[in-house]
Amino acid sequence: MSLALMTRDDATRRQDAQNLRARIRSGAHHGLTTGLAPGMVQLNLAILPKAWADDFKHFCELNPKPCPLVSMTEPGNPIFPSDIGDSLDARSDAPRYLVFRDGILAGEVTDLTDMWQDDFVAFGMGCSYSFEEALVSGGLSLRHIEQKTKVPLYVTNIATEPSGPFHGPTIVSMRPFLPEEAIRAVELTAKYPRVHGTPVHFGNPEMIGIDDIADPYSGAPPVIHENEVPVFWACGVTPQIIVEHAKPSICITHKPGHMLITDRLNTELAD
Length: 271
Prior knowledge:
Layout: H1 8-26, E1 40-49, H2 50-62, E2 69-72, E3 97-101, E4 104-109, E5 120-126, H3 128-137, H4 143-146, E6 153-159, E7 169-177, H5 179-189, E8 201-202, E9 229-234, H6 238-246, E10 251-254, E11 260-265
């Protein structure tokens, strides 16, 4: 969307996103981005050396539900293309980063400037925050937002399509709904294929390899009310599991919930 076509509310949201990004870059905000910069696209992040980047890009193309690629940088350049943000910097614009070495989590940092390599390529992938806004706008309540907790994530038996060294299971996020609400959720998220799209499963979690829904891989244990069914979407945390299998010498991701905030409106990613 050009600036000329943006409404006053859209322009305000864009400015708010840029202000928040400036606070993150300056070190003033290292917390979650959940609920911040409403209306704006937030991205999952993965950074790899160029030697691994082509296979990872192909992995995203083969697995658009867990890894919906929105944008990527040129090798060595930490700045994303301007169509998703004004000087959006992979080194400093996420509140927290996880550093993996040889597939093992080696540390957590808040800035990558001193670690940046001239062969790094950064990948920005769509995030469920975008379709969650569509669900709420469509009249559905989200339990984890109501309770101010992190959405539960699970490792499944749904295999990703491999690309080179990248392979492994799909990570999913779960939101409980009444059956009629679940149908509505499918309809609403079908409009957002670039941010995970429709659910990969709903109902019995054991069918996708989840033995204990009360014990998530990450996030808060869920509260599921009587007559509700669990609904599962592919999740952008999947690359963190994939990295554990591929074991690149170094890979950097965002810390879950600490996303890269762009200047793009969520509605711009809708079909």
